[in-house]
Design goal:
28% helix, 130 residues, binds zinc ion, alpha+beta
Length: 130
């Protein structure tokens, strides 16, 4: 699958049975419909507060269909998210998925964020920031 941001070929990384399409070139990640919920809450339903608000037409194309994605942010976050209008999934730029995971409450969220950072190779950056 092609990266919607930089058009390089994405790699599939598996995390607890969930297939994440990760772009090693720009660090972004594509989540198919339901995967965000599975990742953060263990359920495919869209997590509370994670519906796209004030979405506007974006420039990037959905990697699953020819449509251009909408861009906006979740009502509980300021992170910009691109979403396919045909609901194929969402696109998050480098570090945004871990930031979303981190913003969830509880020790479970901490663990998910930590695993994702390791999976995406974001650990070094995180360490040097401390
Ligand atoms: Zn990319
Ligand atoms: Zn689509």
């Amino acid at each position: 699958m092609q990266c919607p941001a930089c058009e390089k070929v994405m790699l599939i990384l598996e995390y607890q049975g969930i297939e994440l399409d990760h772009c090693p070139a720009c660090g972004g990640v594509w989540l198919d419909a339901g995967e965000l919920g599975l990742l953060l809450t263990g359920r495919p339903e869209t997590p509370a507060g994670m519906t796209l608000k004030n979405a506007r037409a974006g420039a990037r194309r959905c990697p699953r269909c020819p449509r251009k994605m909408d861009t906006g942010h979740f009502d509980n976050s300021t992170i910009e998210v691109d979403a396919c209008p045909a609901r194929h999934g969402i696109w998050l730029d480098r570090g945004e998925l871990t930031a979303l995971a981190q913003a969830q409450r509880g020790p479970e969220a901490e663990a998910v964020a930590r695993h994702l950072r390791a999976l995406f190779g974001e650990e070094q950056k995180q360490r040097s920031e401390k």
